Amino acid sequence: MRVSMTSLQQDIFNCVLSGDLETIKDGLFGMKDEAGRNALLTASMLGRSAIVPELLRHGALVNEQTVRGYSSLHLAACWGHLETVRTLLELGADTQAKTFRGERPLDLAHRYSKTDCADCLILAGVVTLQSFLCLCSVCSSKSDWIQSVRNPTVSDFLDQRQDIEDTLRPILTKLTAGCNIKTRRRKQ
């Protein structure tokens, strides 16, 4: 059984494939096929990272999803388009978006053995806004302690050091694990 594309799917596909941004902007921008794919989703699926920022500048939404919940980042990751994954991450794509099956972009990269994309997504998820704010809070509280403490003992300083190390350990562990994955793959 041969499945053919609809006229709209074919038009979006051809324009994205050829990089014809003018036709997309003039008539296809915002249009979606029956699966909910627009020019940005198609560009991500095809690995056309060069036009992704241009589509976003013209109003495309980086985290828009198809009717089944696939985002541009899902599509780039499962098709193994590393540069497109990086571009989407730089532009604020949500690494935690889920499909109708509850799969995140990382899950799809693993399922389809797109290890470079999986590694990139792992490293992107290490320093989240929440962990960054936690680090800022810990550093601020340590600075306040240093400014306000009177006659600290060596034991006081060691306790403060232990507290900050305990806070940093999970983040450093993830970073180290991500770096080790990359190093092992390069050696293979």
Q: Report the end-to-end length measured between terminal Cα atoms.
A: 40 Å
Query: Which runs of at least 5 residues are low in confidence (pLDDT < 50)?
Result: 179-187
H/I helix tally? 10
Overall 3D geometry?
A: elongated
- What is the count of structural domains? 2
Write the CATH fold name of the largest domain.
Serine Threonine Protein Phosphatase 5, Tetratricopeptide repeat
CATH class of the largest domain: Mainly Alpha
- Mean of pLDDT: 83
Output the CATH homologous superfamily of the largest domain.
Ankyrin repeat-containing domain
What share of the residues lie within helices?
A: 55-70%
CA radius of gyration: 22 Å
- Could you give the order of the helices and strands? HHHHHHHHHH
- Portion in beta strands: under 5%
Major sheet: none
Pfam family, one: Ank_2
Keywords: ANK repeat
InterPro entries: ANKRD_45/46/60, Ankyrin_rpt, Ankyrin_rpt-contain_sf
ANK repeats: 68-100
Structural write-up:
The chain is an all-alpha fold. It has two domains: 7-113, Serine Threonine Protein Phosphatase 5, Tetratricopeptide repeat; 129-187. It has ten helices and no strands. It has helices spanning 7-18, 21-28, 39-46, 52-57, 72-78, 82-90, 105-111, 115-124, 129-148, 154-187. Helix 1 (7-18) packs across helix 3 (39-46) and helix 3 (39-46) packs parallel to helix 5. The longest helix has 34 residues, at 154-187. The two termini are 40 Å apart. Residues 179-187 have low confidence and may be disordered.
Summarize this structure as a short list of keywords or feature phrases.
single chain; 188 residues; mainly alpha; Serine Threonine Protein Phosphatase 5, Tetratricopeptide repeat; 2 domains; 10 helices; elongated; disordered C terminus
